[in-house]
Write a structure and sequence with these properties.
Strand order of the largest sheet: 1-2
Helix content: 40-55%
Structural class: alpha+beta
Largest sheet: 2 strands, antiparallel
Shape: elongated
Number of strands: 2
Radius of gyration: 19 Å
């Protein structure tokens, strides 16, 4: 139950969503020179399930078909994707630090118990 707490579940779901987003961004960057390639992006939907401690972050991958920034039909903007990748990194780092803090607090409580 301790490791299935709502805060840890939220952080775990968020990390999974950010991991998917990172994969999509890297896929876009790897197809920067592919004629006709359309950039993909991830959209997140927060969903609280039931009345318990379960938290799900739904992530959906979409393709940006509406734009075309080059004559060959490719719409990947390297600068935009690089910025998204950096933002994703910062968000993941913050979540890892938060999770680490949760375990540091737990370790402190366990070590301060009855001797």
């Amino acid at each position: 139950m301790l490791f299935n707490s709502k805060p840890l579940g939220m952080m775990r779901s968020s990390l999974q969503g950010l991991s998917l987003q990172q994969e999509v961004i890297l896929h876009n960057l790897s197809n920067l020179d592919t004629p006709g390639y359309k950039a993909r992006y991830v959209s997140f939907e927060d969903t609280l399930r039931g009345m318990g401690d379960r938290y799900d972050l739904k992530a959906h991958v979409f393709t940006d078909e509406a734009t075309s920034i080059r004559p060959d039909g490719n719409n990947v903007d390297a600068d935009t994707e690089s910025l998204k990748l950096y933002q994703n990194y910062v968000q993941q780092l913050a979540l890892y630090q938060k999770i680490s803090g949760q375990f540091t607090n737990l370790r402190y409580v366990l070590n301060q118990g009855p001797k």
